[in-house]
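Q: Joint fold for the lines below.
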Amino acid sequence: MQADLLSPAQFAHTAHLLQQHSPLVHCMTNDVVQTFTANVLLALGASPAMVIDAGEAGQFSAIASALLINVGTLTQPRAQAMRAAVESANRAGTPWALDPVAVGALTLRSDFCRELVQMAPAAIRGNASEIMALAGESQGGRGVDTTDTAAAALPAAQKLARASGAIVAVTGEVDYITDGERTLAVNGGSPLMTRVVGTGCALSAVVAASCALPGDRLLNVAGACAVMKRAGQIAAQGRGPGSFVPAFLDALYVMHGEVAA
Amino acid sequence: MQADLLSPAQFAHTAHLLQQHSPLVHCMTNDVVQTFTANVLLALGASPAMVIDAGEAGQFSAIASALLINVGTLTQPRAQAMRAAVESANRAGTPWALDPVAVGALTLRSDFCRELVQMAPAAIRGNASEIMALAGESQGGRGVDTTDTAAAALPAAQKLARASGAIVAVTGEVDYITDGERTLAVNGGSPLMTRVVGTGCALSAVVAASCALPGDRLLNVAGACAVMKRAGQIAAQGRGPGSFVPAFLDALYVMHGEVAA
Amino acid sequence: MQADLLSPAQFAHTAHLLQQHSPLVHCMTNDVVQTFTANVLLALGASPAMVIDAGEAGQFSAIASALLINVGTLTQPRAQAMRAAVESANRAGTPWALDPVAVGALTLRSDFCRELVQMAPAAIRGNASEIMALAGESQGGRGVDTTDTAAAALPAAQKLARASGAIVAVTGEVDYITDGERTLAVNGGSPLMTRVVGTGCALSAVVAASCALPGDRLLNVAGACAVMKRAGQIAAQGRGPGSFVPAFLDALYVMHGEVAA
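A: Joint structure:
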């Protein structure tokens, strides 16, 4: 299947919508990326909140604009809390996004992610190995790293989108975003983004936020990918991974005012 | 009730005391802000330690200079460990501070915070919605964001201070610090501080540290607020939220040597 | 016993090996330093992964290149997961490193660390107070801070190395690395490294990574210490603790290309 290149203007439009609507994003994410995820959402004008107790998570996902489920540091109690949050989100009509970190070889997260795919996620965001493993087509990558390219995973992403009803974003050097019928491609970014922890996980939080925006969800999710690729490109110029992080957040902070090139 | 403006010299005095006494602050705080909280305390010359097991937390709060309880990512096991730490702190005479993050609508933390208020905290630091909810006067804000101004919450803060015996700091564009009789106001800061996660939570850790200092606790807590507002003002100049964080920590690092304007 | 000064060229050699072999480091570490630890490993070209569920941790440590056990924010469930990971690592031949944070006065971690020392760690990295406490020669320091110098702890480190079979690194103003017979000393670094949370914990992750490299393990562990001291020295120049962190990661990122002075 062919992919259409996303309009270069979309990142500025999505950043504008995020700033304008300021979605409250309930993040149930892994221990490693919480600060960066929160700061990415804040820089974009969205509002993060991390609530993780099973009882409270169910209460909170019902009033949040969107919910993120990221299984990076999954434990049994967290899986239980995430399940409660998803069920409550579904009852309340809160859209939720899944980041199936390192799904494949590890049992707890793999079983849990397969269960979650059946629970009507609005979006799924992963790297090539994760999307292929979730679609049942491979065993996953090397830890959190991918061993495949996003293009190679595109058929798996399209299959997963049709099976789950979610928008599926398989991200890498080029990102592909699909609803199973239409497919968009997003260029840009920087290899430096793979030398900083949490850029993918934070993207998943922005994807969750974008599911709360008005308009075409496929475009909004692709726009979320474009926002991050654009900021990454700006921030990487002449920098190492340490100075990249502040520059990346600074770039996100002004993105709603950027004019598309 | 009237509030007196804190002397502009107080921030330098408090920073000097923190540097000189280097309080060992036992931080039981939320997952999102741990690194930033530790780095804020270290930049000021204080010494952070995060100990979270119920048994160890009770052992450690007895030997720490101060204890921080922040309920941002509360779970049942953490509530139990925090209770043990508070009880041990009280037996040992260690002052402790409460940050009632997002208290109001969420059941576990709301019940727990109401219990903690009865356990003789030395200080309570929250935003307007949190302080009003804790004083029983509203239902809390939108996640961790406040929907009220600090001035509107001042009567609730004063009531809470009298009921609990704690110094209560309700922070926002202007901070108010009260013991229920006297009230001090602190100006400064920057709106950018609301676009970076953890500035409020880290302030609560500095408030906890300030409760271990000699002298008037109301002044010390107000001084802790002034230290953070001053550093935020310096760091925000011409910066986005990403470059704000390193500049903020750099500003705190030299604050004990600053001469008040 | 005498210590030989490590060759100044070793840091560049170790950085080169890390870049070339890109070890996959399974980090079971404390809540406060996870992001920084991951970013340090990524900057050096290694690959971090945090997997903490007891079942998954056992699966993952068998396929990782190295495992890190850091007890900074230990709880009973985490101790159980760490035990499973170590047992699996030992069966699979995965080398693992121990960071006995604040061992001494706190019961859970002290009992657990004494148990771990019997389980054939490849390396142990701690400050003077921690190493002396683990060797049974003192009660530990003040929280995570040391109250002793590394030189004073050298006999304890040598004793611990002989008893455990591990390479022991006792770090401070000067680092000493010993296998119980040979001892190497590493100079450099900056006092600013003690005003930023996680430099010691991240070093332990690099030590774990270095245990997966080919060649003499004593030299590799000493090289890991030298890499961090060298980057710290570069990053500290004219900076405060906030701007130190990005500069430190930037320095690590180019270290494999540095020519030893």
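Q: Anything notable?
A: The radius of gyration of chain C is 16 Å. DSSP finds ten helices and nine strands in chain C.
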